[in-house]
Amino acid sequence: MDALTAALKVAASGLGAQSERLRVVSENLANAQSTGTTPGSDPYRRKTISFASELDRSSGGSLVEVNSIARDPSDFPVEFQPGNEAADDKGYVKMPNVNVLIEMADMSEANRSYEANLQVIKQARDLISMTIDLMRNQ
């Protein structure tokens, strides 16, 4: 397998991984205020994503794969909201363990990584096209 095709495979695996990361971050942001529905019940628990490197035997390159999507075990913050349906007998509600600033930073980083992988694919495609054009003109 040639180097350009290997670069395409590596970049494509990066695109898939960052796309999944963006999905997880989006889900966390969408549920940043999702409390439980009964008194004292747990709210939405933040999801985390981890990646692993996997050797692609056909190209010899290292591809990135989603290793796992797990739940963040950190404690839930509590807020005093006595009118909320999820409030305990003292008026406190467990809130999701989602920090919007962290999620926005993760989203920004994932977006930049996605764009970088997309740029690699565009460059490799352009190089392949130029190679084909050179071969035609011989």
From TrEMBL:
It comes from the Bacteria. Residues 91-133 form the Flagellar basal-body/hook protein C-terminal domain. Its main location: other. It is found in: Bacterial flagellum basal body. The keyword Transmembrane does not apply. The keyword ATP-binding does not apply. One of its GO terms (biological process) is bacterial-type flagellum-dependent swarming motility. Keywords: Bacterial flagellum, Cell projection, Cilium, Flagellum. GO terms for cellular component: bacterial-type flagellum basal body, rod. Residues 8-35 form the Flagellar basal body rod protein N-terminal domain. Pfam families: Flg_bb_rod, Flg_bbr_C. The basal body constitutes a major portion of the flagellar organelle and consists of four rings (L,P,S, and M) mounted on a central rod. The rod consists of about 26 subunits of FlgG in the distal portion, and FlgB, FlgC and FlgF are thought to build up the proximal portion of the rod with about 6 subunits each. Belongs to the flagella basal body rod proteins family. This is Flagellar basal-body rod protein FlgC. The lineage of its organism: Bacteria, Pseudomonadati, Pseudomonadota, Alphaproteobacteria, Hyphomicrobiales.
